[in-house]
Design a protein that fits this description.
Two copies of one chain form a homodimer.
Chain A lengths: L9 E9 L6 H9 L8 E14 L5 H9 L5 E6 L2
Antiparallel strand pairs in A: 1-2, 1-3
Chain lengths: ~80, ~80
């Protein structure tokens, strides 16, 4: 998609996960709830965030992840195209 | 990865997004915060969840999404391999 001033607008996707070894309480809660619903054989549930956005300059995305989108102390992020 | 009883254990990923037209307050907050950090030209920010898990029977995953992982009233889910 081109903008009126001619810059390209890119749709990007960022996957954010709790770092390995960091406790993931949401994941634990889901894992414990599944057997009560009849779902067995599920393990290692990890819950992160999915961020999708449009931006003019994809080169900014890594800095955006470091400064706002992810918490680099406890989360890893992965930038994927779309 | 095979389990002791011989069943295969599959790693799966589920992407969950707010449905189109549903207000996404997290996304709005991020979109409004970015310019204050010097990031411009960003629009249509949508924030969802990323769920990764291991399970014996991938055929159960859709039912798990409908009943626990996603809220089908306001969220779409996409099951992807890994």
């Amino acid at each position: 998609m081109a903008e009126p001033d001619g810059r390209a607008c890119v749709r990007a996707r960022v996957l954010i996960r709790p770092k390995a070894g960091i406790l993931d309480p949401q994941g634990v809660a889901v894992e414990q709830a599944l057997p009560a619903l009849g779902f067995t054989g599920v393990s290692d549930v990890r819950i992160g965030r999915l961020i999708e956005l449009e931006l003019d300059d994809p080169a900014q995305l890594e800095a955006m992840c470091e400064r706002l989108l992810a918490n680099p102390l406890i989360e890893d992020y992965e930038i994927v195209g779309r």
